[in-house]
Amino acid sequence: MIRKTHIGRVPRPGCFALALLMAACAVPRPVTRPATPISPATDVEAPLPSTEAKTTSLRDGVFSQAQVEKGRIVFQDACIECHQPEAFVGPGFIDAWSGQTVDVLFQNLRETMPENAPGRLSRLEYAAVLAYIFELNGLPTGENDMPNLPKQLKEIRIESANE
Ligand code: HEC
Fold it and tell me: Of 20, 42, 68, 101, which has fewest CB within 10 angstroms of its CB?
């Protein structure tokens, strides 16, 4: 009989709590990760903005036999404890990278391998070990060593030997 509260003002705790909850959910989570994904290596110059690139491909003989031999030694020294070279031969490896440019693979390798000491090798050694891996995949050698700077490697497309 004693209804002090006006009907329109009856607090409805359930709905209130729900409204709070929804408000809480609507609040965007603070962004904890930096906007830029993987920071590029700082010890090399930034890649040039892409122009209509004069690209070559791995089929054009972009590494030398001498470089392959160096790469074989690097592989024996720094990779063989965890990898057989055959693991990097064939479609499973080269086709996965096909269409990318060598700088991406180079950078990836440099940032992750050898797994127990990423970045331990020199740029020359990473380039050599890649030349070795490419040669194992039947890609042709040429006159010159494959370069090891990003802007140069960006001009070389990864392709398998026979497509
Ligand atoms: C201590 C062990 C170890 C050493 C040394 C090592 N790796 Fe690895 N490597 C791994 C492991 C483990 C993976 C798989 C990691 C993953 O997929 O996240 C891997 C993955 C890779 C991959 C990717 C494979 C793919 O199919 O995409 C490449 C390429 C590679 N290693 C190259 C090398 C090269 C070249 C060297 C020598 C310079 C090297 N690794 C040395 C352990 C090692």
Answer: 42
